[in-house]
Design brief:
The chain has 3 helices and no strands. With 80 residues, the chain is mainly α. It has one domain. The protein is rod-shaped, with a radius of gyration of 23 Å. The chain starts with 7 loop residues before the first helix and ends in an 11-residue tail after the last helix.
Length: 80
């Protein structure tokens, strides 16, 4: 958020959460407010995308390990 007319407290609040960024954007208003909100949305989108890819990779790894480590003739029984 460099290049925007924000004070130190506003920058910290905007970096803390998307909600904080929305509050700062509303207070600042105008072009600077839109830039703050756009930067927050982009950061949220990037983080969510990264989290989804990492989660998918973990699911694939667990599935491959399960296929590899569970014996071929493995059967479960109905008893406890």
């Amino acid at each position: 958020m460099t290049g925007l007319p924000l004070g130190g407290a506003d920058v910290e609040r905007a970096r803390e959460s998307v909600g904080g960024a929305a509050e700062v954007a509303e207070q600042v208003g105008g072009t600077a407010g839109r830039q703050v909100l756009e930067a927050a949305r982009d950061a949220f989108d990037d983080a969510l995308t990264t989290t989804a890819y990492v989660s998918a990779a973990i699911v694939v790894a667990v599935a491959l390990l399960t296929v590899r480590l569970v014996p071929r003739g493995f059967r479960t029984t109905g008893s406890r």
